[in-house]
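Chapter review: from sequence to fold.
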Amino acid sequence: MANNRLNAYEYIMEFTDTYKKYKDAPTAIREAKCVEVQTRYWFQPMRKDDLLAGRFLIAEIGYCSEPLLGRSVSYFYDPQRIDALLQSDAYTDAQKQDIRDALEFWKGEETRRKTRSRFPEYMKQALPEDIYWEHSEVAFPLYRIVDAYMDYDKLMRLGLDGLKAEALRYRAKAEQEDGDVSLYEGMAMAVDTLSAVCLRYAEEARAAAQTFGGSPARREQRLKIAGALETVAHKAPSTFVEAMQLAWLYSLISGVLNYGRMDVYLGDFYVNDLDAGRITEEEALSYTQSLWRLMASRVTVFHSRVVIGGCGRRNEANADKFALLAIEASRTVIEIEPQLSLRFYKGQNPVLMDKALTCIGEGRTFPMLYNDDVNIPAVEKAFEVSREEAEDYMMFGCGEYVLNHRSIGSPNGIINLLKALEATLYNGRDMLYNKDMGLKLGGLEDFETFDELYAAYKKQLTYYIEILAQQEQLEYEMVAAAGPYLYMSMLFDDCMERGKALLNGGAKYLGGTLETYGNVNTANSLYAIKTVVYEQGLIDRATLLKAMKANFEGYEKERKLLLDAEKYGNDLPGVDGFSQEFHNWLCDTVRNQRERTSLHSYLIVIINNEANTVLGRFTGASPDGRLAREPMANGNNPYGGTDKNGVTAMLNSLVKLDVNHHAGAVQNMKFSKDLFNNHRDILESLLSTYFDNGGAQAMITVVSKDDLEQAMIHPEKYGHIMVRVGGFSARFVTLAPDVQREIASRTLY
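The token string follows.
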């Protein structure tokens, strides 16, 4: 592979020239040609300890589904990386000028910029900025197509030659019917490119085996992977290692960031190899650990989902054996990726849950737990699909649901519900930055009743929700026009059969999702206004506005009254009932947008990464007593420290929010080491009751309060501590100080 690997300058020039050469060609041909160039830079050499091939980087320019964490999609450039090249001494002045010229070209060709240029004026006004961690706005677009779970079973069954043969058969049919053949031609070219990647890595592995200074066993491992790569370059895999290697390289070249039901598509290979004596459990663990490390090196942050367990699996006993192997890999490879996710149901092999809890109890934060007995019926209703399709639901990213190789539902918009309330209370003004935002519907002092205020707030939210749904549809159109995503289209229902690309009528279900933040703080705030201001008259409307503008300085009495109002998370019928009503209205309003768009579904996802903290930085003091710029509650979880009635009450509140009309919600829980590990019977009883009562999901951090406090003081000593931030895990000491404080503030049970 090294014999034709490009350096950064060579790559930028060749990729740019290739794009220009094929700019007016069919998009499938252009994509295939550009990706071929990409492979000679993006695919990096194997490292000494790698048991599998496939190290990968996201380059300065290129074509990908989400190269820059929500900031770009399809054809992109990264100004920061390009600037680093320009500051480097590795290139001449003339080469640096070539890079600058390329950058100017890509400023006009970047898919994100092209998409934004198509925004109508009302959309630009509502969504003036793209980067939510740098600007104060109510809502933001995101740019990504990240949720495509591909049909790995098809890949394992056909292999690369089989995929190419299928594409050529459909090409011949299309030609006979005077149809468009370019999509199938691009697919065949794409297969050839991946075959070449396999063979180049095989050559590299054989060369390493000859020069390798390690043990004979390590040289043998290099030869083994070289043989596997030579096989899967054309043939369908027949061994565990071959299957794992092919799945990994295909995932990388396709740009997908999540890896599917790995126990299903690898389980049979694993057990067959065990039974035939081709591999031992120890060897299989070593290969799985190596794959886990490769996944971690990719640094996808919010993604890297590996799903195990659950209903609808083929050869469940075989799948279970790999699932146990996967849990052991997550227990022994101390990394924040992959995000191992265990689906479970009543009647599933209890050994899986037992091993999962042991792994979580050791501080790994994995696997995350998903209750099929709740989620399958919920997905069936929310997505309006069959039971069989719902059984193949998948979680990706921070926890959003899609249907395995059947549906697209990227969250391409986010909305700060609490900022929208701020806009409503202050008549369309941002009180922190003194600028207009949202609709001018009157301010708090203009609303004589709570119902008037609530109606205005709903109107404010609806305005943004409608625009975000339209933005998502527009983005799909622009991304589809940029390229067909050949590798994903080949392994996605029903692209081949329809002769259409993933986003251009090929995918069986093209849906959308909207990320919501500040759900709990908003419900608490509205309930505080309803009770403390309108019903009890303890604070008048003018005083409340003054108090929030002053960030409660000089209004400590008023703040205490707001803090003392009922808070979600304590199993209280008043505030929990209001939270339910608000949740249902929000879900229904978002879901109704499909009637105004061509999307099969449009659903909210109540997931949080660190955005509850980041968006909080741009949000003023709120009527629940929260101070300006402080974090908001994470997902549907209680605001830190406000759940005062114990863990049972907290869990009872969680299960009250209807799961049947959204696309996933994060439920973060933080338990002490003592409870989790020394009182396992109590812990298991607690979780069992929660799931029996309708709990859909649990993301669990096991840590001590003292360790978190000490880690903030002496980070150099606590690099090992892992926590669930929201929909992803992180080493606690790497997080921003305000994110650390928010996590520390969550109640520890």
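Two observations follow directly from the output. The chain has three domains: 2-139, 256-394+671-704, 411-666. The longest strand covers residues 339-344.
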